[in-house]
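Let's do one together. I've listed all components of the complex below, 641 residues spread over two lines.
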Amino acid sequence: MNLIGENLTYKPDNQFHLNNVSFDFKKGNLYTILGRTLSGKTTFLKTIAGLLNPDSGNLSFEGKDFSKIPVWERNVAMVYQQFINYPHLNVYENVIFPLKQRKLSEDKIKTDVDEALKTVGLVGFENRKIQELSGGQQQRVALARSLAKKAKILLLDEPLVNLDYKLREQLREEFKKIFSKGLSSDAILIYSTTDPQEVMELNGEVIVLDEGKVLQKGPAKEIFENPRNLKVAEISNDPPMNILKGIKSSKKLIFENISINIPTYFKNLEDQNYNFGIRASEIKLDDQGEEFEIELAEISGSETLLHLKKGDSKVIALIEEVMNFKIHEKIKIKFNENKFYAFNKEGELISSPYGDLNG
Amino acid sequence: MEKLYKFLKYTFIILWTVFIVAPFLWAVSTSFKDFQSVNSKVTYIPWLDFEPTLEGWRVLVKSPARGGVDIVEPYFNSIFVTCTASLISIILGTLAAYALSRFTFKAGFVRNNDITFFFISQRIMPPIVLSIPFFIFLSTIGLLDSLLGLVVVYIVLLMPIAVWIMVDFFNRVPKELDETALIDGCNPYQAFYKVVLPNSIPGLIVAGMFCIIFGWIDFFFAFILTFTEVQLLPVKVVALNSSITPWWSLSASALISVAPLIIVAFVVERYLSKGNLSGALK
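Okay, and this is what the predicted structure of the assembly comes out as:
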């Protein structure tokens, strides 16, 4: 009775948009697709919606072959990253559109639409024209239209990416509430995003997608704690996880003439070359630390991102306060040695601070 | 500086308005003149300079048997041919344009852009090149000197305009709009007429206006493809000019030829500014 995809491949113009993607989505769950732009997220969702036909593979829902059912009979709902509404209709007519199309009874339509508008906080806006609404409100209308449909599969394609920072934060919070209470146990919700923070907050099952390929599947916590390889570590962190090429020798971890005591969980690693990973938030300013040169300092919100350089190694440090730095200034930083990851030469995760690699 | 700019701006606007409106005023005044008032000396103001008469207008509705040049029938012929051809061109052109904008065609080396160019290329050729094929074509199918024949020819002339304008318009309507309609339970035909078409009204109006203008003002094909049975307005107006030029009835006929276009422009202008808004897609 689940939504099952088997070896879905879509490869127009000799470029993989989907590369052998398989999944088994259960009803009542939230799934997030995490990937950078052009990683195949939209293709993934469009394939489920039926707007694209995969070149090969099977897609079935509730035991039926989904590929034989045209889009308009699939009972899915989709919210795009662009704010797509029907510009010739007002807010109420927009939300009612899919219900009318299904020829439901007037009463049922009324209650469903009112409920959906209430959920997204647009009561009182029924007669507004779409063009009179702000971006955030337009996206709420699109969401209301999708919710009112009570579709069995709800697809959200980077719904927050085109909103400004403040609105994104606010709507993300609301989405979380809507999903946690408004989602029936009968529906599957699939949410795609480039933002790791959204993935962590929504806290669903995560699929990490890159170049159409599934890199890792699992709960959000697991992706965060044990990214299977360098690619996942990069995609699932913002800023991307710092990767440092170095050597592990007996009790030290050495790169760019910096030697750091190895964390206890590195004890059993062979002494050889590794790619060491450390998150930007695990690097702190410290007068006793190592000297790096500032290449760029950006302030975002209440944080400062420092792009640092030493020799061939570049790291990004996340300072949790707003500070002003001069470019090319030298500063001293300290790595939190208990948060190092080790990836082998092939880029696969060997050792992690959260242990338990195969669980 | 500001004042100078304003002064120059308004001077230019006033001059331009005079330039545009003067011929119309001239035509209006001439249409009420008689032979004497046109040919003896320059006259401007009715009742003061000359005695206005309706003779110029009367000639246009009198039957030839009573010395008139009856342009009523050509007038309605022109309206019929222009409207029918424009309507069919818009309907077929819009459908073709939607297909060209949304689907990918492949036939040998032919792609969407080639098909669009094929449509536009119909207008690139000088009309004289088309006249002989059209003549032979219409005479073969027995539609020479008939309204239907003219409608067929005008569709060939007007549809490229409709396709050209509408392809460009549809290309600017996001594909996601159609997709959302499909997801919301419309089949492709419903998606087209329930969602895409209502949002294409500005484009349709522009295309319709161009079709009507180009259909209405065509003289060349109306002249070549008709003889005695059927006549269109432009041909009839030109035919007024015989050994003596009847300036008064020429002016009158020129005015009523332009009238429909002016009316169309006024009506459409209102919809156009309203339509722009309702078509505001991101």
